[in-house]
Amino acid sequence: MKSVGIIVNPAAGKDLRRLVAYGTNSTHSEKINAVVRMLRALDALGVTRLRIAPDPGKLGERAIETAAEGLQTLDAGILEMPWLLGSRGDTERAAALMREQDFGCIVVLGGDGTSRAVAAHCGEIPLIPVSTGTNNAFPRMLEGTLAGMAAACIVRAARPGEAQHRAPMLRLLADGEEVSHALVDIAVIDTLDQGALAVWEGHSVRELFLAQARPDSIGLSAIGGCLAPLEADCGEGLHLELGEAEQPGCIHVTAPMAPGLVVRVAVARHGRFRQRTPVRTTRGVFAFDGERELAIDDGRQWEVLFDPQGPWVVDVQQALNLGRARGLFRGEPQAPAH
Amino acid sequence: MALGKKQMALLYHNLVRADHFDKMMMNRIMQGKLLGFYHPGDGAMAAGVGASTFLGENDILNPHHRAHGMGYHVGRGTDIGRYLAEHTGKVDGCCGGRSSFHWSFPEQKVYGASGFIGWHFCPVVGWGWASKQKGEQMVLMASGDGSYGQGAAHEAMLFAMNWKLPIVFFCENNGMAIHSTAADMHPMPDISSLAQGYGMPAVVVDGQDVFAVAETVIAARKHALAGKGPTFVEAKTLRLREHDVGTPDLARAEPREAKYLEALKQRDPVVLATRRVLDEKVLTQKQIDQIYQEAKEEVARVEQFADDSPVAQPSIEELQAGVYA
Predict the structure, then answer these.
(1) Count: domains in chain B
(2) Do A14 and A151 belong to one domain?
(3) Is B311 a residue whose pLDDT tops 70?
(4) What CA–CA distance (Å, rounded) separates B311 from B97?
(5) Which of A162, A233, A319, B276 could join A153 via S-S bond, C-beta 3.0 to 4.6 A?
(6) What range does the domain containing A236 cover?
């Protein structure tokens, strides 16, 4: 049976948006409790091996210590990593190690940025992204027990590709070469607004490429979601060019940019795209899934590609149904499917 | 709210200056050219620079003890020559050369340091109360994770919240309190979770990212000046060296692993900030070289000033005049 991995981003759900936009405080004690619930669910459904990525705050150790007494079959431990730097690199290295060790499923606790870091390094391992971040377009609000049960269904009852789908993603190309990617949105931010990594002010966004756009999400993608939503599996992305508030011809869209921060944004143009689409803005900074990261180099040709073949994501309801159909919840657990 | 290129360039400039001054202090204590101690801030200068560079001139600043507040002093614009003269017992020191690293610059509302960790929680409530009466003034109180083991920390947060005082509790959490690890000293890894118990808005920021720290404290200051009360900002940082120069670098009773400390240097804030200002075309390499050159020259001027200043030899009357009670 393949191992289950858990990656918890201790920094998710704690940034500046607690001050400027009343974002939820995702406390460490609640993250630990969520992991404990996952451990109990994995154990109850006969998973034999779990490894949690280490973090400087020792959230994983604390969860295992809390859950240890009640565990029957689960060998729960911390993924061996040489040392931690307290940065996104820790998450990326943990995901890469889980891929090297052929894990069967990874539960990711964090926001869009955390899922993006994991997705870049996890290869074909299906993810269960659980929201503990601020803007949660990619991960979902999901009770820890159910996340653990779904992960157990994947490693115990599902065949490869069952109860999961490939999420779309966006790839940023410079002169035809991929330089970065995003799971939800790539934004071009005005060069005069470059402080912290998180993007939370709509007026600084000049251009937006979306892999998903739903009106029930929060963050930059909600602008698209509140204007021209994308249906799931439509195979297309959404491209928006934002204008100034008084610019004639603009559509004014009211959208939730951050928790408690519903703002009006002027959209000059929008349309769906599938193939490579040029970035029109010539100066600014790229933000990937809400985090500023890369400056536009004037000398290069920048394009965004919509890729429908992004990371594997577990469909939790389907996974649980699959587990039920294959007898995982009745009597003795079935033999693993792979 | 967000930072423009000019502000980013200023932050970078101050970070490089603070880093140079910190290294100057380390060199001088090793050469026997400082009185007392030096608690190096190597690899942890971004938090102080980011927190203090954009404070208003009326704001009260209470710097952190690490690096003897160097990042805060540079951000605030206090006179590093007088700061060094104080550390060397010279008459031109900010306190007449009598305090070593228990400096104070009251004329700039930079209130000092003490040998007692967590001493400041009670005074800060008073400063906060006074600031609220005056208006257009707030308090930035900086301390480390270790100080939040003091009972007074909780009293201060309670009163600050009840009275909606304009205070930013700024915690540099480097995971170490002398030889004790924060994991051993606190049940939860985020010190900011304590503030949440008082209903105080609390955020965690990467203390190695000078720009992120600055943007966060600007937002916290705005919150305070708007009369919305205190906030808590926790800057996650690190400690590359021993607690104070000359003592062993231990975690519990064991030496900290050299390979680990070497790996941590990837997170040096100057390295990170340099990459960012180049990548985002805030500065050119030529401008960065110029900033480094100016920082070296400034260090030389500051040392010359302190070295030229006469040794303080106060009379009995002068000493008695300096005794408050």
Answers:
(1) 1
(2) yes
(3) yes
(4) 8
(5) A319
(6) 169-307
Q: Tell me the CATH number at B293.
A: 3.40.50.970
Q: Is the ipTM of this complex over 0.90?
A: no
Residue listed under structure tokens 């894990």: A103
Q: Is the pLDDT of residue A334 over 60?
A: no
- Type of residue numbered B94: C
Q: What is the pLDDT of residues A51-60, one digit of tens each?
A: 999 998 889 9
Given a cut of 80, whether residue A142 has pLDDT beyond it is yes
Burial environment of residue A253 by CB neighbours within 10 A (0 to 12, 13 to 18, 19 or more): buried
B→A contacts (Cβ < 8 Å), by residue, are: 1-5, 7-8, 175, 183, 188-190, 192-193, 196, 201-206, 208-209, 211-212, 214-216, 219-220, 223, 231, 236, 238, 257, 259-260, 263-264, 266-267, 279-282
Distance CA A52, CA A29 (A): 16
- Cα–Cα distance measured from residue B50 to residue B18, given in angstroms and rounded to the nearest whole number: 11
Q: Is residue A277 part of a domain?
A: yes
Q: Is the confidence at residue B109, as pLDDT, over 70? A: yes
> How much is the pTM?
0.88
Chain A residues whose CB is inside 8 A of the B7 CB are 195
A250, A266 contact by CB (below 8 A): yes
